[in-house]
Design goal:
Number of strands of chain A: 7
Radius of gyration of chain A: 26 Å
Structural class of chain B: mainly beta
Order of helices and strands of chain A: HEHEHEEEEEH
Oligomer: heterodimer
Number of helices of chain A: 4
Strand order of the largest sheet of chain A: 3-4-5-6-7
Order of helices and strands of chain B: HEHEEEEHEEEEEEEEEEEE
Structural class of chain A: alpha+beta
Largest sheet of chain B: 16 strands, antiparallel, barrel
CATH class of one domain in chain A: Alpha Beta
Radius of gyration of chain B: 23 Å
Strand content of chain B: over 45%
Helix content of chain A: 25-40%
Shape of chain B: globular
CATH class of chain B: Mainly Beta
Distance between the termini of chain B: 60 Å
CATH superfamily of chain B: Porin
Number of domains of chain B: 1
């Protein structure tokens, strides 16, 4: 009896182990994974980019619909990217890499101040529209004598800029969803 | 003991249930899709001569053809994770004099669970057909690709006998398609008879009453298939075995139909090579769709093909050979052989231009309208070149 129990326990353990292996290896195939003799299915891609023209409902995978960047041809979230561009647009842009998600501005002095200048670097960290998907680093220099010297920036300034970017991204997303309705 | 068993079941059950990830409900969408196709063809067929057709002169060699389908695609997902939807496909059909009538092709609904598989119901391809693996091809090239639309059928009403299991029969049925386990999945389907659509019983006729056991050419159609898809190193592998059987209508001497298909595809670096072999107790062009008269040999056909894709260009080639018993003493089996090469250029996503050439050698066939005597069985030789465009949206 004890032996039977032990065997049953062993069997259960094997099954559980098997199930954890199942998790990555069991799924229901999508409908487009089956053999189809339809002439439409032989054509690669679709005019208009989506599988059929939406006549009722909300577009979920439209270009920019989630801003995932897949359809828009950029490597990071399209909303966050646009929002960061908008937010930092008051400074001259020195380089922007939409695939890596890096935006670097040139030095910029606010009007009326000639003795200090700012430079910002924004990183978009992924394809998802998430609040931790953007990092902004801000650098500040002061003119002392005839040389620019690095000066620390209040940590809150960078996070305020991040908030601005996120608020703008939210706005863009809302506009896009409204347009798709 | 019983407790342990119950416990085991519960644990396994929990593990299986736990696999379903949190699903968000998705409001249903309705889309309209479809395609339009234009094809120009040049046909050189030795059955097009005045002597064969009985017409005053030979058929002309050039023809144009247009085709379209409109699909209504419904999709949604319930809060419990079940996907559901329907597809209604409207096609051009040559069933009136102008060949411009529209009727339904497939029309079916489904529910799908991430852990339990998919259930389809309606006028849809059988499980054996949906899970089959067949020789690779590019748009409008293949054993029964674009070429056959341009030629006249022989006396038995077929243009080609080179085809795959069930050859697109959409009889109203139910289909279950399993989840995929470690690359393996399977499916089964059942259709009570061969009819599709609204199934309106027609009174006063003993041959088209769908529930009559003597109506149609196949009843109680059961099909199933098992498929494997995976990759080893850089080589993708797809293999499947499909089978189907049915009952012949009552009151006939025809033997019950069955058909089998085995297929394999290997792909790497843009190249796909593969083939399929179809065999069973059937005649005509569609494997398994009708039984075989006593005394006739079983049919078979096979195809091998290769395709290569590089960017917007795809090229392909195939070779196919099929055999059917001619059912006439003194006449050998019909043997149809096809060889084709072709290319496709994707101008834009959804817009393709294709061109291909197919040579068909059809041995021991009889031209339509000629008497069924041995003297009328001849060898038919056809060359078809087509060029055209297909646009999908």
């Amino acid at each position: 009896m004890r032996l039977t129990r032990l065997m049953m326990l062993g069997f259960t353990a094997t099954l559980i182990a098997g199930c954890s292996a199942l998790e990555g290896n069991v799924r229901t195939p999508e409908l487009d994974e089956y053999s189809s003799d339809r002439r439409r299915d032989q054509v690669r891609g679709r005019l208009g980019g989506t599988d059929g023209i939406l006549i009722f409902g909300t577009e979920r995978n439209q270009r920019g619909g989630t801003g995932s960047g897949d359809a828009s041809g950029i490597g990071v979230n399209a909303f966050l990217w646009r929002a960061a561009l908008d937010t930092l647009s008051f400074m001259p842009l020195s380089s922007a890499d939409p695939f890596g998600g890096v935006m670097i501005t040139d030095w910029y002095s606010p009007p009326g101040t000639t003795g200090e200048r700012f430079r910002a670097t924004a990183y978009i960290l992924g394809r998802q529209l998430r609040s931790d998907g953007v990092r902004v680093a801000l650098f500040r220099q002061e003119l002392r004598g005839n040389a620019w010297v690095d000066v620390p920036v209040a940590a809150s300034t960078a996070s305020e800029l991040e908030d601005q970017v996120l608020a703008r991204a939210r706005e863009l997303r809302a506009q896009s969803t409204a347009a798709a309705r | 003991m019983r407790k342990i068993l119950l416990g085991t079941t519960a644990v396994v059950g929990a593990a299986l249930m736990g696999m379903s990830v949190a699903q968000a409900q998705t409001a249903p969408t309705v889309r309209v899709g479809g395609y339009f196709e234009f094809t120009g063809g040049y046909v050189d067929d030795n059955f097009d001569t005045a002597a064969t057709t009985g017409l005053p002169s030979s058929r002309s060699k050039v023809d144009f053809r247009s085709d379209m389908e409109l699909h209504v695609i419904v999709r949604g997902k319930a809060a419990n994770g079940l996907s559901y939807g329907a597809e209604i496909e409207l096609q051009m059909d040559a069933n009136n004099t102008s060949s411009t009538a529209v009727d339904t092709d497939e029309m079916w609904g489904f529910v799908s669970s991430p852990t339990l598989g998919t259930l389809q119901f309606g006028d849809q391809d059988s499980a054996a057909d949906q899970l089959k693996v067949a020789a690779p091809s590019v748009t409008n090239l293949g054993e029964s690709g674009g070429w056959d639309e341009f030629i006249a059928p022989e006396a038995g009403g077929t243009r080609y006998i080179l085809t795959t299991i069930n050859d697109g029969s959409d009889s109203t049925k139910i289909i279950y398609l399993s989840p995929q386990f470690f690359g393996f999945d399977f499916g089964v389907s059942y259709a009570p008879n061969q009819y599709e659509g609204e199934n309106f019983l027609i009174g006063g006729s003993s041959t088209v009453l769908q529930r009559d056991s003597n109506a149609g050419s196949i009843r109680n159609e059961l099909s199933g298939a098992i498929r494997y898809r995976g990759s080893f190193g850089n080589v993708g592998v797809a293999a499947a075995f499909s089978a189907m059987r049915g009952d012949a209508p009552s009151g006939t001497t025809v033997r019950d139909p069955n058909a089998y298909q085995a297929g394999l595809n290997l792909s790497a670096y843009g190249v796909t090579v593969g083939g399929h072999y179809v065999w069973g107790r059937y005649g005509g062009s569609a494997p398994g769709r009708a039984g075989l008269a006593p005394g006739l040999n079983n049919s078979n056909n096979w195809t091998i093909g290769a395709t290569y894709r590089a960017g917007a260009i795809a090229v392909g080639a195939f070779y196919a050979l099929g055999k059917r018993d001619n059912a006439l003493v003194g006449v050998s089996d019909r043997e149809q052989q096809a060889i084709g090469v072709g290319a496709v250029y994707t101008m834009a996503p959804g817009l393709e231009v294709f061109a291909n050439y197919t040579n068909i050698e059809d041995e021991n066939v009889r031209a339509a309208g000629t008497a069924n005597v041995a003297a009328n069985y001849r060898n038919r030789s056809i060359d078809v070149f087509i060029i055209g465009t297909r646009l999908a949206f």
